[in-house]
Design a protein that fits this description.
The complex is a heterodimer of chains A (about 425) and B (about 300).
Chain A: H1 2-21, E1 23-29, H2 33-49, E2 53-59, H3 63-75, E3 82-86, H4 90-96, H5 111-115, H6 119-125, E4 126-127, E5 130-131, E6 134-139, E7 141-146, H7 147-152, H8 164-176, E8 182-185, H9 190-199, H10 206-210, H11 223-237, E9 241-242, H12 250-258, E10 262-268, H13 272-282, E11 286-289, E12 305-311, H14 317-330, H15 333-343, H16 350-358, H17 361-364, H18 366-376, H19 382-385, H20 392-407, H21 412-434
Parallel strand pairs in A: 1-2, 1-3, 8-9, 8-10
Antiparallel strand pairs in A: 3-12, 4-5, 6-12, 7-10, 7-11
Helix pairs in contact in A: 15-16, 20-21
Chain B: H1 12-38, E1 41-43, E2 50-52, H2 56-63, H3 65-96, H4 103-115, H5 118-128, H6 135-143, H7 154-182, H8 186-194, H9 199-210, H10 212-228, H11 231-238, H12 249-259, H13 263-291
Antiparallel strand pairs in B: 1-2
Helix pairs in contact in B: 1-13, 2-3, 3-7, 3-10, 4-7, 5-11, 7-10, 7-11, 8-9, 10-13, 12-13
Classes of the chains: A alpha/beta (about 425), B mainly alpha (about 300).
Chain lengths: ~425, ~300
């Protein structure tokens, strides 16, 4: 009896010690719903194939909530190992000082994976010449349109508008033929404004978009901005543009489009999968096209939107290595292919694009193709690299408020000048606060 | 020896009160104190660096037209919410207090909105008042041929969040007013009835004054509600838009504190909100003392 107890005790002890040898890694992300399930499945795969490591993924709410929670946890000394941070939080993440510049820690034999990133993505996330984080979910805005409404309005269903004027022309026809109650919608979000600024090759902040040195001046009052606002205001006044009235209402805009209230919608490529399903359910044929740009300018391309994965400081070396192993596995070629097919987010590695090509994925799924071509055709310059601005979330609200003021009849030049002053002040306050 | 003393030991009451004090200290007094302190600092996002700036945050609040606009919005919002939710609460409870058939159902239905969480109420309003696909505009377009931009027009947006906040809180007022009405001394009303007073006179000369303690209590509760609990409606319906037309203090505190990481500014606004509500409550007590009749 005694011996049995001893054996039992010993085996319990041993199982504990085995369990203890597993390295625990926490990963905080901002994806709810179906994407949570997707991440969970990938994490399970990883844990199964890496018996020494146990990754736990946790959904922490919105991008902003996730960043908040991570910085707070880091201050209290128990930061998660991996955090997903939205692209405009990049400057903030660097300033927070709680993350390691990831490129310095990638083992030599896996460096190839960093060189595999498609150019526009590498362009955005290489800050000061190196990756501070691992790019993960990346997207762009594209034009989605309802081919049935286009046919009804006498428009070419295979030739969506490519410029601002072409959008207006299409809207005229749609209104004249009463093919749809509204012509076009997109969420009233600063992200689209930023994209149109980049398309024109213009900058959003000084010091080369904050890439050469910390930005000290936000360019809201620019010619590029004026063109966008004039067109947008025109669409609004004629009743062509519809939005729910709430800023940043992504779901509301999607609702207007899939319920056939609007003939076109501009929104993120990460909704391709959703749109395909919704168009099938609502019985219309979906088309996708490039983001329409101002007439007479050369198309520079779009800025990569989305988020990347950051590694926090101050963990034992073993844990840091394990976290990095997971990160590089999670964003490797196979997983990027899966991620793209499951959501519409870009396959951000050249090799994953090759795999998809080999599977004829893009010819079989043309909706995904427009999204991706637009990204690949982006020119690599400071404009399309995207701005780094510390208080970006606040600047976004300033721009969104400005757009609404313009809708209500404020003079465009005046609104731009006022918003410019506000954005500069927000930046000045931020810079003063982070200055050591 | 004090014969009133329930406790033999002088320390026992303190020991028994200690848990309450500890909780109050940890969760009420200490955070309040910290808020006051923080409002004097300029804080980099989430407290990564802190610099004492004295009253600079307050100066900013009282000189920046954007913030003054927010104060104005808050005053307008609070005034109308308190006014309408109390007036509607009183009117509905007087109606529901009548002995008509089905009174149980009416009362239940009146209290119902209060049982809904503000988040759910906010989402319902969002569906109802969606400009393009909401049912309200659908009905208006087939009957009157108009489709107002509930959330794109600044005045309508303000009216809508006031309406939502009132709708949500009316049930609470109804509960208290009905309780008040049930406890009115029947003989006074009966005497008035016999003396030939009209129902209008009976209400304003007897019922309303007798209800004054209840009105006074509800005034304070509703004021606090209007200042502190309207956050979900703004967040869900308008996000402060269009262009800050519905941005009220409680929403802006959240936004400055948790979205823009300007903790110092958010703390200063909290202090202002705190002071405003304390001031209003004291004023109400001062003015109320002479007008409120508590039954003997």
């Amino acid at each position: 009896m005694k011996r049995l107890a001893a054996i039992l005790g010993l085996s319990v002890l041993m199982s504990f010690s085995f369990a203890a040898e597993k390295i625990q890694i926490t990963f905080w992300h901002a994806f709810g719903g179906g994407r949570t399930a997707f991440i969970e499945r990938a994490v399970q795969d990883f844990n199964y194939t890496h018996p020494g490591i146990e990754v736990k993924a946790e959904y922490k709410g919105s991008y902003r909530d996730t960043l908040n929670a991570a910085i707070l946890a880091a201050k209290q000394g128990n930061a998660p190992h991996i955090v997903q941070i939205f692209e405009v939080g990049s400057q903030m993440a660097i300033d927070s000082g709680i993350f390691v510049p990831i490129e310095d820690y990638v083992p030599a034999e896996l460096k190839f994976q960093l060189d595999d990133y498609i150019k526009p993505v590498a362009n955005y996330y290489r800050i000061g010449g190196k990756f501070n984080s691992i790019p993960w979910n990346s997207s762009n805005p594209i034009l989605y349109y309802n081919k049935d409404i286009f046919k009804k309005a006498g428009l070419d269903p295979n030739n969506p508008p490519k410029t601002f004027n072409e959008v207006v022309e299409a809207c005229k026809k749609i209104e004249a033929t009463k093919a749809a109650p509204k012509c076009i919608t997109w969420p009233l979000h600063s992200w689209f404004v930023e994209q149109w600024v980049a398309e024109q090759g213009a900058l959003l902040a000084n010091n080369e978009n904050g890439r050469a040195a910390r930005a000290t001046d936000v360019y809201v009052d620019s010619e590029a901005m004026k063109r966008i606002m004039k067109w947008w205001k025109g669409l609004y006044d004629k009743g062509y543009y519809a939005y729910t009235g709430k800023p940043e209402d992504w779901d509301g805009a999607n609702q207007l489009f899939v319920s056939k209230q609007a003939a076109m919608e501009i929104t993120s490529t990460s909704d391709v999968t959703f749109m395909q399903n919704a168009s099938y359910e609502n019985g219309f044929e979906l088309g996708t096209g490039f983001l329409p740009v101002p007439d007479g300018i050369e198309r520079n391309g779009t800025v990569v939107g989305g988020a990347s994965l950051w590694l926090t400081k101050g963990h034992p070396q073993k844990e840091q290595e394990a976290a990095l192993t997971f990160l590089l596995w999670f964003t490797n070629t196979e997983n990027m292919v899966r991620w793209h097919k499951g959501t519409g987010y870009f396959p951000v590695l050249n090799t994953s694009v090759k795999v998809l090509d080999w599977q004829h994925w893009f010819t079989r799924n043309p909706a995904y193709k427009a999204a991706f071509d637009q990204l690949l055709q982006s020119k690599a310059n400071r404009a399309t690299q995207g701005a780094l601005i510390g208080p970006f979330p606040e600047v976004r609200t300033i721009i969104e408020n400005m757009v609404q003021e313009i809708f209500q009849g404020k003079d465009i030049a005046k609104a731009l000048a006022e918003a410019d002053a506000k954005a500069d002040k927000a930046l000045k306050d931020y810079n003063a606060a982070v200055a050591k | 020896m004090d014969t009133h003393a329930a406790y033999k030991s002088r320390w026992l009451p303190w020991v028994l009160l200690a848990p309450t004090f500890v909780i109050l200290l940890a969760f009420l007094y200490y955070p309040t104190f910290e808020t006051f302190k923080l409002s004097l600092y300029r804080v980099a996002f989430l407290g990564l660096s802190k610099k004492f700036v004295g009253l600079a945050n307050y100066k900013e609040l009282f000189t920046n037209p954007d913030y003054l606009h927010i104060f104005w919005n808050t005053a307008v919002f609070a005034f109308f919410v308190v006014l309408f939710s109390m007036a509607a609460g009183l009117a509905l409870s007087v109606l529901a207090n009548q002995k008509v058939s089905g009174w149980r159902v009416y009362r239940l239905l009146l209290i119902w909105p209060y049982a809904l969480s503000p988040a759910v109420a906010g989402v319902i309003f969002l569906f109802l008042f969606n400009e393009q696909s909401g049912i309200v505009n659908y009905l208006l377009s087939i009957t009157l041929g108009i489709t107002p931009g509930w959330l794109t027009n600044p005045k309508l947006a303000m009216a809508l969040i006031i309406f939502a906040a009132v709708w949500k809180n009316v049930g609470y007022n109804v509960v208290f007013y009905i309780a008040g009405l049930q406890n009115l001394p029947g003989e006074v009303l009966e005497a008035a009835l016999i003396d030939g007073a009209s129902s209008w006179q009976r209400f304003w000369k007897i019922t309303f004054p007798l209800l004054s303690p209840m009105t006074f209590f509800l005034l304070i509760i509703n004021t606090i509600y209007a200042f502190f609990e309207a956050f979900p409606f703004v967040d869900l319906l308008t996000k402060g838009g269009p262009s800050d037309a519905t941005n009220i203090l409680i929403f802006n505190i959240y936004r400055d504190g948790f979205e823009y990481y300007k903790t110092g500014m958010a703390a200063a606004q909290s202090v202002i909100l705190f002071v405003a509500v304390v001031f209003l409550t004291i004023m109400q007590f001062r003015l109320g003392e002479s007008r409120v009749h508590y039954g003997s």
